Amino acid sequence: MHARKILRLSGPDTRDFLQGLITNDINKIDQGLTYAALLTPQGKYLADFFLAADGDAVLLDVDAEQAEALMKRLTMYRLRAKVEISPTNLGVTRGTGAAPEGALADPRHAALGWRLIGAETGEDDSDWTGLHVAHCIPQSGIELGPDSYILEAGFEALNGVDFRKGCYVGQEITARMKHKTELRKGLRRVDITGAAPIGSTITAAGKPVGTLYSQAHSQAIAYLRFDRAKGDMQAETAQLHWTP
Q1: Are residues 35 and 114 in the same domain?
Q2: Are 36 and 107 found together in one domain?
Q3: Average pLDDT of the chain to the nearest whole number
Q4: Residue 19 lies in domain
Q5: pLDDT tens digit string along 65-98?
Q6: Which of 11, 37, 85, 203 is disulfide-compatible with 48, CB 3.0–4.6 A?
């Protein structure tokens, strides 16, 4: 598991503050763990994270490599809002078997089991890369990067975006992609024979059609241009095939 960092947001304006920033409805934390992202004003990905209620406060579970930049961004947006944003010493454990007391279901997909914010850090011996690939679930620092649009990354299927919640940073672009255009590119699971480094260019008939990412069990996650990703495809010495 990528190292995680837990931030705590507290204060009377916490929920309103987050509601105006994140892609999901903050009030869903009353029902369980909530998955969301923070976007640029141009609708591009900055960070993805989980949110959980902690009394009147909110715990934010984010990739450790994104934590410092996310804290700075949240602090920049805070202005006069009565919100305190602070790091914690908490960790995350996760697994796919019987859930321990206090654990919450991973909201992205049932196959990803549970997550527990607490004193410990770790994960069981589940084939996590295999699960991510089998269900086309992107990970920060791999499939998710600064050029990503969350709808191309499958956030709607992953319960990471709410189209009824109202305005948030990047909402206008995201809503336009949802309602006014048909996606021409995006992450898809492909069949693969062989292997190639993450980030390898995928070609078909000599033309670039996308990028190869996580791989497991003769499958991979690929970012594809749909109109070109037809027939036999290659990524270095690996052979790929995608069925729309």
Answers
A1: yes
A2: yes
A3: 96
A4: 4-179
A5: 999 999 999 999 999 999 999 999 999 999 999 9
A6: 37
Tell me, what's the pLDDT at 15?
97
Domains held by the chain: number: 2
Handedness of CA 49, 100, 88, 126 (dihedral sign): negative
Q: Structure pTM?
A: 0.96
Same domain? For 104 and 214 the reply is: no
Tell whether 197 and 128 lie within a shared domain.
no
Which residues on adjacent β-strands are paired with residue 8?
Answer: 59, 86
What pLDDT sits at residue 2?
78
